Amino acid sequence: MDRRTFSQLLAFGAGMFSASHVAANAAAADAPSVDNVDKAVPDGNGPVDGEAWPASPVTINDFIPLAQAKLPKATFEYITSGSEDEVTLRDNVDAFRRLRILPPLLHGVQKTDLSTSVLGQKVSMPILLAPVAALRLFHPEGGRASARAAAIAGTICVTSTSVGNSVEEVAAAGNGPKWFQLYVPSDRELAKQLVKRAEASGYKALVVTVDLGERKDADLRNRFSLPKDMLLKHLRDIGHKQVSDRNTYEELVAFNAKAWDVSLSVEFFQWLRRETRLPIILKGVLTKEAVQQAIDLKLDGIVVSNHGGRRLDGMPAAIDRLKEVVDAADGRLEVLFDSGVRRGGDVLKALAMGAKAVLIGRPQAWSLAAGGETGVKLALEILRDELTNAMISSGCATVDDISPSLLLSAAT
Ligand SMILES: Cc1cc2nc3c(=O)[nH]c(=O)nc-3n(C[C@H](O)[C@H](O)[C@H](O)COP(=O)(O)O)c2cc1C
After folding, report:
1. What is the domain extent for residue 80?
2. Which residues have CB under 6 Å of ligand 1?
3. In terms of pTM, does the model score above 0.85?
4. 161-193 pLDDT per residue, tens
5. Nearest Cα residue to atom 27 of ligand 1
6. Which CATH number do you get for residue 389?
7. pLDDT single digits (tens) 233-258
8. Ligand 1 centroid distance, CA of 153 (Å)
9. What is the spatial distance between Cα 219 and Cα 80, in angstroms, rounded to a whole number?
10. Is-contact 67 366, C-beta < 8 A?
11. Nearest residue CA, atom 21 of ligand 1?
12. Strand partners, 305
């Protein structure tokens, strides 16, 4: 992929309303309402007066049809699809299913404490919101809704550079802990200003995503494209003061194509380390060699991730790489995990393999689309409940009790 195509894809991440998108949105407005996630707590009495059951998600996957009914096809597929043949996307989820939990009996555990700390930040559970681009395209409240939901759940919201809201807008949305995920402007001075703005706005860590190069058939078929107003806002949010609505769409696209550094190297991290005191987390690690690079660069944490199967198809399931990475890290930096988490039991498995916490991408996007802040809050509560159940069933009173001995591999 050339630099221009990739930069466009980065900008896709900022969210967009193309002409076809606007038309599709209008059609979606006529679709039956599924905005029932706020009625999601069942009362046990069944439907009232012959009404259909409210669409009340009880699992993460229950949000998928709700999101689908709310969103234009192209937007739903932008969230849900993976790269090329989606081998990695499927494997991320299937690999969790292949792992088996073998719990002890007679453990006497009745209650659990899910709280933990991640890079020194106390959280109520080891489940964080992953950086997701274009949240404002999925729901008008976008990154602000996610930040509020995370704050209420007592966990960390990692905000994408391409979320569709400015650094300051998301920071002002809620008082919960936030980290900033950095896509790097090619203008280093602007990159520096972005980092300083994140610091000044109270973000507590920087997540630098290095697995770049999204190419998804669905997006190509759907001609998923940037609407002018969102592209303009995105560029201005980054700090490009020279763009304005007097620019043509083509001019903005051309400008955006040059706006991002898509060839990050060790030198960038040396520069970033000098520029900020915030902890730096490398996202996209799958090998012990990458762990060593992160250690050599004195980084603070890593996210084991294949970008949810949205980057190079054919990469292994992220959970299948976790053990090697944890062993290589050997406690020298904190290891987080994402890609394929759909159940509280998946969280237990990732923690049993040594992750400190997990992040959720699509579950956040689907639930936001389905019900805004309420939707994301509910998704986090579902995962919390499932993890609580998995921990009690496994005799784990605290997250520190979750150990590798709980796991059998499918081959065992
Ligand atoms: C719609 C969408 C947009 C994403 N945008 C970003 C992004 O801007 N920055 C980033 O680092 N990761 C991004 N990701 C990847 C997530 O942070 C995360 O790695 C991935 O979604 C985890 O897999 P999961 O979707 O199976 O939970 C995005 C994921 C999705 C689904």
Report:
1. 3-408
2. 13, 79, 92, 130-133, 160, 162, 181, 209, 283, 305, 307-308, 310, 338-341, 360-362, 365
3. yes
4. 999 999 999 999 989 999 999 999 999 999 999
5. 361
6. 3.20.20.70
7. 999 999 999 999 999 999 998 999 89
8. 20
9. 11
10. yes
11. 361
12. none
